[in-house]
Amino acid sequence: MIAEIPFWQRKRLDEMTPAEWESLCDGCGKCCLAKLEDEDTGEVYYTDLVCRYMDQNSCQCTVYSERLQKVPACTVLTPETLGDYHWLPFTCAYRTLAERRPLADWHPLRSGDPQTVHEAGVSVRHRVMSEADVAEQDWEEHIIHWII
C-alpha cells in the first residue's frame, strides 16, 4: 500500500481548500504580536505584546470569526496576500511552503499534536503580555529579538 502524499506537499498554496489553508497555521501566535515599523527604513520590530483577544495559553484568537470587526488591521493571510506580509517569521508554515521548504517536525500537521509547537518552544506561550496592559507610547520598550 502506497501512502498518500500530504496535501501540503502536493498542492500549491492557491490550490488548497479553505480547511487545508487554515490547517497550515501552526498556532504559534507570532502573527498576533504587536509590531513596530521604522518609518525611515521599513524595518519591522516584534514586541512581546499580543492582541488583546489572544488566549495566551493556547495562542489562539478568542474572537477568530469576528476578528476583522474587532481588529480591522488583523493579519488575514490568503495565497494572494501572503507576499504583503514580509514580516512573517521564518518558522511560519505559510512562509515556509511559499519558500518551498518542508514543514518542521514540530508542526501539528506533521506531529499530529497541536501541543508540539509549544513543546518545541516555537510559540509565544508564556513569553508575552496583552497590548491592553501597556500604553502604546511605551511599546518600544517591549521590542524583542527572539523571533526567527
Please provide the count of β strands.
Answer: 5
Radius of gyration, CA atoms, in whole angstroms? 16 Å
Low-confidence stretches: none
Number of domains: 1
> What is the string of helix and strand elements?
HHEEEEHHHHE
Strand order of the largest sheet: 1-2-5
Strand content: 5-15%
The residue-averaged pLDDT reads 93
Family: Belongs to the UPF0260 family.
InterPro entries: Puta_zinc/iron-chelating_dom, UCP006173
Protein name: UPF0260 protein DIT71_09110
Organism: Marinobacter vulgaris
Structure overview:
By secondary structure, this protein is of the alpha+beta class. It has one domain. It has helices at 7-10, 18-23, 67-70, 93-98, 108-111, 116-119; strands spanning 33-37, 44-50, 54-55, 60-61, 129-130. It has a three-stranded mixed sheet with strand order 1-2-5, with no helix packed on it. The chain has a two-stranded antiparallel ribbon with strand order 3-4. Strand 1 and strand 2 form a beta hairpin. The longest helix has 6 residues, at 18-23. The protein is globular and about 55 Å long.
Task: Note the topology.
Layout: H1 7-10, H2 18-23, E1 33-37, E2 44-50, E3 54-55, E4 60-61, H3 67-70, H4 93-98, H5 108-111, H6 116-119, E5 129-130
Parallel strand pairs: 2-5
Antiparallel strand pairs: 1-2, 3-4
Short description, anyone?
It comes from Marinobacter vulgaris. By secondary structure, this protein is α+β, with helices and mostly antiparallel strands. Helices cover 19% and strands 12% of the residues.
